[in-house]
Amino acid sequence: MRLIAAMSGGVDSAVAAALAVEAGHEVTGVHLALSPDRQTLRSGARGCCSVEDAHDARRVADSLGIPFYVWDLADRFREDVVEDFVAEYAAGRTPNPCLRCNEKIKFSAVLDRAQALGFDAVVTGHHARLVDGELRRSVDAAKDQSYVLGVLTARQLAGAVFPLGSMTKERVRELAAERGYAVATKPDSHDICFISDGDTRGFLARRLGDQPGPVVDAATGATVGTHAGAYGFTIGQRRGLGVSAGDQRPRYVLGIEPVSRTVTIGTAEQAEVDEVVTQVPTWTGPVPELPFTAAVQLRAHGSPVGCTVTGTEEGGLRIGFTERQRGVAPGQSAVLYAPDAERGDRVLGQGTVLRARERSASLHT
């Protein structure tokens, strides 16, 4: 096959490109320039896509003897990922920018351009598996990235190659060292790539400015504090509330109302929900017949929980949990996995959470 290797400058994408070359594919390396000021997007293990990363990717491409290009997708990334991130927080939701980047950049903009140029697929360093066209978890549970790939469609998955899903991260580093790549010991990037200092609240404050409002305790209805911006909070948050509720019970963020700028907090019991309603879902393969049982994962590093999935009149999903969950926020992705033991690592699809609640009564909208 003719493949585009998306080379971030990290160890995963380096080894993925090498394995594609060694498998006999015709590979061209591509590094994505995602910021107009690329010197600002890495600080140690934080951030990515800097000039340093481009150089690391080029050195690996040179060692493989493959063509290498830098594609400038800064405008597309700013619009589809960064501005979406800011708008979602301003609306009181909690987005996942890595999921949005996979959906809009790596497997939309990049894949579309690659196929328009005559390539068959894009190979990446994601830790996930494709088995007979089905998206499955990586064998390395600690590094599994199937959650952030759950938004991809069957067409996009047909244009993807994930060589690392059958090995551990330790093995990936060993393969890089065996090939003499300097990135073998390069730290993994983490947090949000376009917030290189890790200060999400500070980033949003610079973009959205001061938007003061009240902090209200749901247990009493009393205003127990104020804040500088509701965008600085997420559903389920416990630390950093900056308020005293008058008793010793810990408080969690229950709701964020962006119009009135009200942040509602409550007890652990009040923070628990057993159902979410989602937007219209995307499916990684054939659309399952409703209703059905599955396992759902609500965060990138969360644990799956059993669930029953039904439809809504608007075309979304109603997902009822077998165990109550805490910290479920609008904007998160509810990724569904097959329920059976043999294929329980198979991703079925996902829906973006509109609201989380108790089945008997809504806790937050």
TrEMBL record:
The lineage's top-level taxon is Bacteria
Q: Which InterPro entries would you find in this protein's record?
A: MnmA-like, MnmA-like_C, MnmA-like_central, MnmA-like_central_sf, Rossmann-like_a/b/a_fold
**What biological function has been recorded for the protein in this entry?**
Catalyzes the 2-thiolation of uridine at the wobble position (U34) of tRNA, leading to the formation of s(2)U34.
Q: Which GO terms describe its biological process?
A: methylation; tRNA wobble position uridine thiolation
Q: Which GO terms describe its cellular component?
A: cytoplasm
Marked site: Interaction with tRNA: H126, Q332
Q: Which family, according to UniProt?
A: Belongs to the MnmA/TRMU family.
Listed GO MF terms? ATP binding; methyltransferase activity; tRNA binding; tRNA-uridine 2-sulfurtransferase activity
Q: Which organism is it from?
A: Modestobacter italicus (strain DSM 44449 / CECT 9708 / BC 501)
Q: Which UniProt keywords apply?
A: ATP-binding, Cytoplasm, Disulfide bond, Methyltransferase, Nucleotide-binding, RNA-binding, Transferase, tRNA processing, tRNA-binding
Location within or outside the cell: Cytoplasm
Identify the stretch(es) annotated as Interaction with tRNA. 143-145
Q: Does the keyword Transmembrane helix apply?
A: no
Ranges where the tRNA-specific 2-thiouridylase MnmA-like C-terminal domain occurs: 275-353
Enzyme Commission code(s) on record = 2.8.1.13
Q: What is its main location?
A: cytoplasm
Locate the active site.
C101 (nucleophile), C193 (cysteine persulfide intermediate)
Q: Which Gene3D superfamilies does the UniProt entry name for this protein?
A: Adenine nucleotide alpha hydrolases-like domains, HUPs, Translation factors
The UniProt catalytic activity note for this protein reads: S-sulfanyl-L-cysteinyl-[protein] + uridine(34) in tRNA + AH2 + ATP = 2-thiouridine(34) in tRNA + L-cysteinyl-[protein] + A + AMP + diphosphate + H(+)
- The name on file for this protein is tRNA-specific 2-thiouridylase MnmA
CDD domains in UniProt: MnmA_TRMU-like
Q: Which HAMAP family did the record assign?
A: tRNA_thiouridyl_MnmA (MF_00144)
Q: Where is the tRNA-specific 2-thiouridylase MnmA-like central domain?
A: 202-266
Q: Where does ATP bind?
A: A6, M7, S8, G9, G10, V11, D12, S13, L32, G125
